[in-house]
Design goal:
- The protein has 164 residues and is α/β, with parallel strands linked by helices.
- It has one domain: P-loop containing nucleotide triphosphate hydrolases (Rossmann fold, 3-Layer(aba) Sandwich).
- It has six helices and five strands.
- The chain has a five-stranded parallel β-sheet, sandwiched between helices.
Length: 164
Protein backbone atom coordinates (compact mmCIF):
# COMPACT_ATOMS: atom_id res chain seq x y z
CA UNK A 1 0.00 0.00 0.00
CA UNK A 2 1.37 3.41 -0.94
CA UNK A 3 0.77 6.59 0.94
CA UNK A 4 -1.26 9.10 -1.07
CA UNK A 5 -0.25 12.74 -1.42
CA UNK A 6 -3.86 13.82 -0.85
CA UNK A 7 -4.73 15.09 2.61
CA UNK A 8 -7.73 13.11 3.82
CA UNK A 9 -10.20 14.26 6.40
CA UNK A 10 -12.61 12.42 8.65
CA UNK A 11 -16.12 13.80 9.13
CA UNK A 12 -17.95 12.67 12.27
CA UNK A 13 -21.46 13.36 13.57
CA UNK A 14 -23.29 14.16 16.78
CA UNK A 15 -26.97 14.97 17.19
CA UNK A 16 -30.20 13.55 18.48
CA UNK A 17 -32.17 10.92 16.58
CA UNK A 18 -33.86 12.47 13.51
CA UNK A 19 -31.81 15.68 13.78
CA UNK A 20 -30.61 15.39 10.18
CA UNK A 21 -27.18 13.77 10.62
CA UNK A 22 -27.58 11.27 7.78
CA UNK A 23 -28.91 13.90 5.39
CA UNK A 24 -25.92 16.11 6.18
CA UNK A 25 -23.57 13.13 5.80
CA UNK A 26 -24.87 12.41 2.29
CA UNK A 27 -24.53 16.08 1.31
CA UNK A 28 -20.95 16.22 2.61
CA UNK A 29 -19.98 12.99 0.83
CA UNK A 30 -21.17 14.44 -2.46
CA UNK A 31 -19.58 17.84 -1.86
CA UNK A 32 -16.18 16.42 -0.83
CA UNK A 33 -16.08 13.38 -3.10
CA UNK A 34 -15.61 11.28 0.02
CA UNK A 35 -16.54 7.73 0.95
CA UNK A 36 -19.72 7.57 3.03
CA UNK A 37 -19.95 4.80 5.61
CA UNK A 38 -23.37 4.66 7.27
CA UNK A 39 -23.88 2.61 10.41
CA UNK A 40 -27.64 2.38 9.83
CA UNK A 41 -27.16 0.96 6.34
CA UNK A 42 -24.55 -1.59 7.40
CA UNK A 43 -26.54 -2.72 10.43
CA UNK A 44 -29.77 -3.08 8.46
CA UNK A 45 -27.98 -5.28 5.89
CA UNK A 46 -26.00 -7.37 8.38
CA UNK A 47 -28.75 -7.78 10.99
CA UNK A 48 -32.08 -7.27 9.16
CA UNK A 49 -34.15 -8.83 11.95
CA UNK A 50 -31.54 -8.84 14.70
CA UNK A 51 -31.84 -5.43 16.33
CA UNK A 52 -34.94 -5.18 18.49
CA UNK A 53 -33.64 -3.63 21.70
CA UNK A 54 -31.11 -1.01 22.72
CA UNK A 55 -28.82 -3.82 23.92
CA UNK A 56 -29.08 -5.54 20.51
CA UNK A 57 -28.05 -2.27 18.87
CA UNK A 58 -25.09 -1.78 21.22
CA UNK A 59 -23.84 -5.34 20.61
CA UNK A 60 -24.19 -5.17 16.82
CA UNK A 61 -22.73 -1.65 16.62
CA UNK A 62 -19.70 -2.75 18.64
CA UNK A 63 -19.10 -5.67 16.25
CA UNK A 64 -19.39 -3.40 13.24
CA UNK A 65 -16.94 -0.88 14.68
CA UNK A 66 -14.34 -3.62 15.23
CA UNK A 67 -14.72 -4.76 11.63
CA UNK A 68 -14.64 -1.30 10.03
CA UNK A 69 -11.80 0.26 12.04
CA UNK A 70 -9.04 -1.18 9.82
CA UNK A 71 -11.03 -0.41 6.66
CA UNK A 72 -11.37 3.23 7.71
CA UNK A 73 -7.67 3.33 8.56
CA UNK A 74 -6.81 1.99 5.08
CA UNK A 75 -9.03 4.53 3.31
CA UNK A 76 -7.49 7.41 5.24
CA UNK A 77 -3.94 6.12 4.64
CA UNK A 78 -4.71 6.08 0.90
CA UNK A 79 -5.74 9.74 1.04
CA UNK A 80 -9.47 9.09 0.86
CA UNK A 81 -11.68 11.31 2.99
CA UNK A 82 -14.33 9.48 4.99
CA UNK A 83 -17.78 10.62 6.01
CA UNK A 84 -18.54 8.38 8.97
CA UNK A 85 -22.28 8.43 9.62
CA UNK A 86 -22.08 6.80 13.04
CA UNK A 87 -23.60 8.49 16.08
CA UNK A 88 -21.30 10.36 18.39
CA UNK A 89 -24.08 11.05 20.84
CA UNK A 90 -22.40 9.97 24.06
CA UNK A 91 -18.90 10.45 25.42
CA UNK A 92 -18.29 6.71 24.97
CA UNK A 93 -19.30 6.79 21.30
CA UNK A 94 -17.16 9.88 20.74
CA UNK A 95 -14.14 8.21 22.38
CA UNK A 96 -14.18 5.62 19.56
CA UNK A 97 -14.56 8.35 16.95
CA UNK A 98 -11.70 10.32 18.52
CA UNK A 99 -9.46 7.24 18.37
CA UNK A 100 -9.96 7.13 14.59
CA UNK A 101 -8.54 10.58 13.90
CA UNK A 102 -5.85 10.34 16.55
CA UNK A 103 -4.66 6.85 15.51
CA UNK A 104 -4.61 7.90 11.85
CA UNK A 105 -3.24 11.41 12.31
CA UNK A 106 -5.84 13.04 10.06
CA UNK A 107 -7.82 16.23 10.11
CA UNK A 108 -11.38 15.86 11.32
CA UNK A 109 -14.61 17.71 11.92
CA UNK A 110 -17.31 16.69 14.38
CA UNK A 111 -20.55 17.97 12.86
CA UNK A 112 -22.89 18.72 15.75
CA UNK A 113 -26.44 18.88 14.39
CA UNK A 114 -28.12 20.75 17.22
CA UNK A 115 -31.91 20.45 17.08
CA UNK A 116 -34.62 20.66 19.71
CA UNK A 117 -36.63 17.62 20.70
CA UNK A 118 -39.67 19.20 19.04
CA UNK A 119 -37.80 19.63 15.72
CA UNK A 120 -36.56 16.03 15.88
CA UNK A 121 -40.03 14.68 16.64
CA UNK A 122 -41.45 16.48 13.58
CA UNK A 123 -38.69 14.98 11.42
CA UNK A 124 -39.19 11.56 13.03
CA UNK A 125 -42.89 11.62 12.13
CA UNK A 126 -42.00 12.46 8.52
CA UNK A 127 -39.34 9.74 8.43
CA UNK A 128 -41.79 7.18 9.84
CA UNK A 129 -44.34 8.10 7.14
CA UNK A 130 -41.79 7.85 4.31
CA UNK A 131 -40.23 4.69 5.80
CA UNK A 132 -37.06 4.57 3.69
CA UNK A 133 -35.60 1.12 3.04
CA UNK A 134 -33.65 -0.11 6.04
CA UNK A 135 -35.25 2.32 8.46
CA UNK A 136 -37.38 1.18 11.34
CA UNK A 137 -40.49 2.81 12.70
CA UNK A 138 -39.57 4.72 15.85
CA UNK A 139 -42.19 5.91 18.32
CA UNK A 140 -41.98 9.26 20.12
CA UNK A 141 -41.54 7.27 23.36
CA UNK A 142 -38.54 5.44 21.91
CA UNK A 143 -37.13 8.77 20.73
CA UNK A 144 -37.42 10.19 24.26
CA UNK A 145 -35.80 7.07 25.77
CA UNK A 146 -32.83 7.23 23.39
CA UNK A 147 -32.57 11.02 23.76
CA UNK A 148 -32.20 10.52 27.51
CA UNK A 149 -28.68 9.18 26.80
CA UNK A 150 -27.67 12.12 24.59
CA UNK A 151 -24.64 14.12 25.76
CA UNK A 152 -23.74 17.26 23.77
CA UNK A 153 -20.07 17.41 22.76
CA UNK A 154 -17.72 19.44 24.92
CA UNK A 155 -14.72 21.44 23.71
CA UNK A 156 -12.60 19.58 26.30
CA UNK A 157 -13.12 16.31 24.35
CA UNK A 158 -10.64 17.51 21.72
CA UNK A 159 -12.85 17.66 18.62
CA UNK A 160 -12.97 20.33 15.93
CA UNK A 161 -16.69 20.96 16.38
CA UNK A 162 -18.81 22.51 13.64
CA UNK A 163 -22.27 23.31 14.93
CA UNK A 164 -25.18 23.12 12.49
Amino acid sequence: MTQSTKTPSLHLFCGKMAAGKSTLARELATRHGAVLISEDEWLSLLYPEGINTLQDYLTCSSRLKRVLKDHIRTLLAEGVSVILDFPGNTKTQRAWLRSLYIDNGVDHVLHYVDRTNADCLVQLKKRNQEKAEGSKFTTPEEFMMVTGYFEPPMETEGFNIHRH
